[in-house]
Amino acid sequence: MLDAALVLRLRQARKVVVFTGAGMSAESGIPTFRDRMTGLWAQVDPMEIATPWAFRAQPQRVWDWHAHLARAVRTAAPNAGHHAVAALELRGIDVTVITQNIDNLHQRAGSTRVVELHGNLLRLKSFVDEEAAFARSVPVICPACGGYAPAEVLDGYVGREDFSVIELCDGPVPRCPACAALLRPDVVWFGEPLDPETLDAAWAAVEACDMLLAVGASLEVEPAASLPWRALQRGVPLLEVNPSPTQLARHCVAGFRSGAAQVLPDLFDVIWPVR
Q1: What is the spatial distance between Cα 41 and Cα 20, in angstroms, rounded to a whole number?
Q2: Active-site residue among 66, 106, 118, 251?
Q3: Is 16 helix (H, G, I), strand (E, B) or coil?
Q4: Could you tell me which residues are beta bridge partners of residue 116?
Q5: Which runs of E-coded beta strand occur in 193-250?
Q6: In the CATH scheme, what architecture does the domain 4-122+191-271 have?
Q7: Are residues 227 and 98 in contact, defined by beta-carbon separation less than 8 angstroms?
């Protein structure tokens, strides 16, 4: 799998970034975005179901599409790759997972430090229409959903615990019980920037790591795609696990043309054997 000299080099790594994309979750049965555009939602323009403008125009249609995906996410289970990444922490490795996936599978497998670049499908937030929010007066922060809300509409008896029980599921688009704002999945849609604090956490992890492993990531979506390249600039050894090589492949110290569930358990046993 790896030559002895490379194994010895990699074994020195103690701060590891595992950068994961859609291929990681595909092995758990989560459809990639391209796969989601088949079946019930065949021929649907992504701009019609994954943008803030689409939600403003047809909130129920956008909600229904995401609820359809949420059913697949809830029935999926972490695969052997997710579990192998989580188990590294038990071997004394400082692991930060930076993921473009929105399915919560890394956390369910047991990983404790996960940077979710594109959000989390199973988490909700308010849909903030800033023009409307600031039209009448300076809004306040809703204590339940965290969105902007006119002070006069807030229900002071409703708190975060009332908001947290609302789920992404079939049915009408829910509203915040405190301010009545429409709720939406807490994911990054087309046309939206990444959360600055989340992106800063990802960059900080890459700046501190001494090994980066890219798993199932196409490395075509910015700014996330730049993260492994920064590690390369720092001279950090890179490994890639992907059935199809990316542009990063020729710069990696090792590449594996298979899925994470097949590769990662054995790979980690070679680099950091259980004693």
Answers
A1: 26
A2: 118
A3: strand
A4: 99
A5: 211-215, 238-241
A6: 3-Layer(aba) Sandwich (3.40)
A7: yes
Per-residue pLDDT of the chain (275 residues; tens, 9 = 90+): 788 999 999 999 999 999 999 999 999 988 766 555 555 456 677 778 899 999 999 999 999 999 988 998 999 999 999 999 999 999 999 999 999 999 999 999 999 999 999 999 999 999 986 655 555 667 788 888 988 877 777 777 888 898 999 999 999 999 999 988 999 999 999 999 999 999 999 999 999 999 999 999 988 888 999 999 999 999 999 999 999 889 999 999 999 999 999 999 999 999 999 87
Where exactly are the structural domains of the chain?
Answer: 4-122+191-271, 128-181
Q: Which two tokens stand for residue 139?
A: 């809004």
Q: Which token pair is 91?
A: 């071997």
Beta strand residue intervals within the chain, DSSP E = 15-20, 94-99, 114-116, 119-126, 140-141, 148-149, 183-187, 211-215, 238-241, 254-256
Read off the amino acid at residue 107.
Answer: Q
CB atoms within 10 A of CB 105: 25
Instruction: Concatenate the DSSP letters of all residues of 35-103 into one string.
Output: HHTSGGGTT--GGGTSSHHHHHH-HHHHHHHHHHHHHHHHH----HHHHHHHHHGGGT-EEEEEE---S
Our answer to whether residue 82 is catalytic in this structure is: no
